[in-house]
From TrEMBL:
UniProt KW keywords: Cell membrane, Hydrolase, Iron, Isomerase, Lipoprotein, Membrane, Metal-binding, Palmitate, Sensory transduction, Vision
One GO process term, biological-process aspect: retinal metabolic process
Family: Belongs to the carotenoid oxygenase family.
Cofactor: Fe(2+)
Name used for this protein in its record: Retinoid isomerohydrolase
Species annotation: Anabas testudineus
Length: 531
């Protein structure tokens, strides 16, 4: 599942370049046959504006959000995109400068203001960004573009118009929520974020948003906290990007990558810092694994611990014979992987890109297993008796249970990332297949499939082609877990038509069809297929 290509021509630099929005949908040139069950649209989010006038954005997660849409109709495909009209975007365009501080780019005070108005604007506190460039998901009958702050952006999935800005702080005790909720069959949404817990200590809350209401009121207004996880450090919550959910449990992995809240609140206005400046690693904590019952929500106070990892994406989690099995896209060690995602690094020449990735944490797909039934007398022996995994859990004298993973895939500087599964069929259940974007020294250059039971792998890859996260769409007539297709947007900068939507058979990653468009498409992170 490792890349067979080098990228000395540096075509990947193109996916980090500004693009213009479209006035109307563009036609595409289709080769192959679009499956008849594809009748909806593929929606994806990412950065589109990488500088405002002369002022550059510095980090991969700073560029202003643009929403992309591929529509499927009668075997034809059209492409459309529009910038989200967030406060961050509208104010930047109006004032021709960066106005709101982004993840790795600081906004400086308005040079036109005098010293007094600048002084008083310090006391307005932090203006948190609403640049929702990470994902889009449904809540009830609505669709929201999201990032990891307290702001969501409601969008019209047909016209891509921005409808309104929603502040989750108005409804629940939360500082922000992740861009990776879990959504149940009935439309119930679960998410996690850090919050102020009891006695001014930090904690993490799981928030539940109910499905569409009978009285047609906004489900977000009925959000509530269902369970709280404690924080290992009082003033420093771990960075949380996603979480696991089985039929009856939540899984929360507390990594050593911390947000220094005091620094976040103080240095911000004084020194012109940004979000990235507020991260630090706790080099001695290791990784803490937490579980909680889902309904009714109840934290299970047992300390599960493991070696230090960085974590962004859970693949899947399920219960089996008294155990919780959860699979992760892990990065070894305590260093923050986002330190390697500065645009200057990603736009460097191939040799430089490779050199930087040599220093970075190493990616690995890992399976961990947590025993639910624990007896104090079983100290020192492996508590896992599932026949199919080598993952272990051993109780130490102090009552903590040490977890060692089973490695499902490992290749040097070859990450299996942005994972996807047949979520509707096997989300939260025992499963066989995971799909992912393959990163080659952080550059996306292939689509991967992994059999998590046998470790068999498949790859789709073409030279000078840079795909995005593959989304699985089930064939409605299919019965197998992998009966369906994968949808991915591929940038092919050297080509006559520099980008295309690629449709792969999920069984063997063979090409079913592609729809080429005559414009560049920059990097996208996450998205959804809307039937």
């Amino acid at each position: 599942m490792v890349s067979v290509f080098e990228h000395p021509a540096g075509g990947y630099k193109k996916i980090f370049e500004t693009c213009e929005e479209l006035a109307e949908p563009l036609p595409s040139t289709v080769t192959g046959r679009i499956p008849s069950f594809l009748k909806g649209s593929l929606l994806r989010l990412g950065p589109g504006l990488f500088e405002v006038g002369e002022e550059p954005f510095y980090h991969l997660f700073d560029g202003q959000a643009i929403i992309h849409k591929f529509d499927f109709k009668n075997g034809q495909v059209t492409y459309f995109r529009k910038y989200l009209r967030t406060d961050a975007y509208v104010r930047a365009i109006t004032e021709k400068r960066i106005v709101i501080t982004e993840f790795g780019t600081c906004a400086y005070p308005d040079p036109c203001k005098n010293i007094f108005s600048r002084f008083f604007s310090y006391f307005k506190g932090v203006e948190v960004t609403d640049n929702c460039l990470v994902n889009v998901y449904p809540v009830g009958e609505d669709f929201y573009a999201v990032t990891e702050t307290n702001y969501l952006t409601k969008v019209n999935p047909d016209t891509l118009e921005t409808l309104k800005k929603v502040d989750m702080c108005n409804y629940v005790n939360i500082n922000g929520v992740t861009a990776h909720p879990h959504i149940e069959k009935d439309g119930t949404v679960y998410n996690i974020g850090n919050c102020m817990g009891k006695g001014a200590a930090l904690a993490y809350n799981i928030v539940k948003i109910p499905p569409t209401q009978k009285d047609k009121t906004d489900p977000i207004e009925r959000s509530k906290v269902v369970v709280q996880f404690p924080s290992a450090e009082r003033f420093k919550p771990s960075y949380v990007h996603s979480f696991g959910m089985t039929e009856n449990y939540f899984v929360f992995v507390e990594t050593p990558v911390k947000i220094n809240l005091l620094k976040f609140l103080s240095s911000w206005s004084i020194r012109g810092s940004n979000y990235m400046d507020c991260f630090e690693s706790n080099e001695s904590q290791g990784t803490l694994f937490h579980i909680a019952k889902k309904d009714p929500g109840e934290y299970i106070d047992i300390k599960f611990k493991g070696a230090a990892i960085g974590l962004f994406h859970h693949i899947n989690a399920y219960e089996d014979q008294g155990y919780i099995v959860f699979d992760l896209c892990a990065w070894k060690g305590f260093e923050f992987v986002y330190n390697y995602l500065w645009l200057a690094n990603l736009r460097a020449n191939w040799d430089e890109v490779k050199k930087a990735a040599m220093m970075a944490p190493q990616p690995e797909v890992r399976r961990y297993v947590i025993p639910l039934d624990i007896h104090k007398e079983e100290q020192g022996k492996n508590l896992i008796s599932l026949p199919y995994t080598t993952a272990t859990a051993v109780m130490h004298a102090d009552g903590t249970i040490w977890l060692e993973p089973e490695v499902l895939f490992s290749g040097p500087r070859q990450a299996f990332e942005f994972p996807q599964i047949n979520y509707k069929m096997i989300g939260g259940k025992n499963y066989t297949y995971a799909y992912a974007l393959g990163l080659n020294h952080f550059i996306p250059d292939r689509i991967c499939k992994l059999n998590v039971r046998t470790k068999e792998t498949w790859v789709w890859q073409e030279p000078d082609s840079y795909p995005s996260e593959p989304l699985f769409v089930q064939n409605p007539e299919g019965v197998d877990e992998d009966d369906g297709v994968l949808l991915t947007i591929v940038a092919a900068p050297g080509s006559q038509r520099p980008a295309y939507l690629l449709i792969l058979n999920a069984k063997d990653l063979s090409e079913v069809a592609r729809a080429e468009v005559e414009c560049d498409i920059p990097v996208t992170f996450h998205g959804m297929y809307k039937p």
